[in-house]
Amino acid sequence: MRTRNNIRELAIMTGEPFFKEKLYVGRPNIGDRKRFMERMEDILDRRWFTNNGPYVQEFEAKLASFVGVKHCIAMCNATIALEIAVRGLGLAGEVIVPSFTFIATAHSLQWQGITPVFCDIDPSTHNLDPVQIEKLITPKTTGIVGVHVWGRPCEIEALSRIADRHGLKLLFDAAHAFAGSHQGKMIGGFGDAEVFSFHATKFFNTFEGGAVTTDNDELARQIRLMKNFGFAGYDQVDFIGTNGKMTEVSAAMGLSSFERLDEFIDVNHRNFEHYKRELRDVPGIKLIDYSGPEKFNYQYIVIEIDEQITRIDRDRLVEILQAENVIARRYFYPGCHQMEPYHSHFPECGVALPHTERLVKRVMSLPTGTAVSLEDITAICGIIKLVLSNADQLAINAVSRA
After folding, report:
1. Which of 197, 239, 300, 352 has a CA that sits 20 to 30 A from residue 377's CA?
2. How many alpha carbons lie under 13 Å from residue 380 in its C-beta half-sphere?
3. What is the reported pTM?
4. Are 325 and 18 in contact (CB under 8 A)?
5. Number of Cβ atoms within 10 Å of the Cβ of 354
6. Which residues contact 376 (CB under 8 A, 6 or more apart)?
């Protein structure tokens, strides 16, 4: 197949990208298009577009059954879902979170006057390090937010023991982890509640959307009130609330995505295994693995770059790939603690986050999903191999261009 064979052919030299169309990390998957359009016609005929319509109800019931929980509350997006879950749990003061996460995790706390206390990660899992958590607990601490990064579950039992021991609430940001499992149980049923994202960039999407899942009856009742302005009846407001409702169109897309769920996961798994084969023996490249008996959605292809071995850093490799229309992404650069307002509030925070500081400079995500073929992956990995085998020359070229 067509590939790059010489560094003089690279787009950073010629200006001609290898791929005519851009390959994205999270180009949206499309569910059963026919069934979606049928649902759209039904929505238009009913003229019931929002306010807990029949498709939202069906979507919530299907998702709760799939995850294995009593309650699923669908939302307009995962950020609002996080904010409402945080308020429903009564979090206040300080809450411990990783800095290695999407900024919405921290913002959902700060937005409500809660201080996110950033905790370092385990460098082998990229998830919260339970050992570090206990060092950060103060009389002001009310909760822990664990993030299942890359869809690989946190050390759930360890976090649960810490939360129980100190009387803290435990919330999981499961934005990456839909359709995954932990010890044979589907993610979504752990802690006091979990929050999913169904944003367009997720392998399972509702265009835009999210959900809170929980087995706590009273928490679910409060969250349902809060997502609809606090309305308990037509003219009865029982609780402070906002507008977090999912629309019927988004729920219809979610139901259509459910009908292709296995296919989406199979494609992701196929792509992961192909990347794994192509990059297995490349020095300085570590592919984040999904192994063991658990279920994974394989929606992220993540590599760590060891610059001491590759002789070229992550940012330069991203630049070269993006010039080829391979829109690789840095995750979660530069870390929440380096973004505002957190950097101004806690300018020395990075000293306590050595593993986070190191990882944000090494990790990157590569394109996958139904819009990416095995031939595309072979070509992407071929470009990476070509770059690394000519790293010294490319470094000299970068200096001469500066």
Report:
1. 197
2. 31
3. 0.95
4. yes
5. 12
6. 19, 23, 367
Residue type, 123: P
What is the pLDDT at residue 15?
Answer: 83
Question: Domain check: are 267 and 375 in the same one?
Answer: yes
Number of domains in the chain: 2
Residue 393, pLDDT score: 83
**Helix segments in 282-341, DSSP class H:** 307-310, 314-323
Which of 18, 3, 22, 17 has the alpha carbon at shortest distance from 369? 22
DSSP class per residue in 124-152: TTSSB-HHHHHHH--TTEEEEEEE-GGGP
Domain containing 158: what range?
33-258
* Token output for 18: 């290898």
Hey, is 20 helix, strand or coil? coil
Q: Would you say residue 177 lies in a domain?
A: yes
Domain finish residue from 258, 289, 313: 258
pLDDT recorded at residue 399: 44
For 350, which DSSP code? G
Residue 214, strand partner residues: 71
Task: Judge whether 63 lies within some domain.
Answer: yes
Q: How far, in Å, CA of 257 to CA of 269, rounded?
A: 17
Helix (H, G, I), strand (E, B) or coil at 337: helix
- Other residues' Cβ atoms within 10 Å of the Cβ of residue 396: 10
Mean pLDDT by 10 residues, the chain (402 residues): 84 92 94 95 97 97 98 98 98 98 98 97 97 97 98 98 98 98 97 98 97 98 96 91 97 97 98 98 96 95 97 96 97 97 93 97 97 97 96 68 52
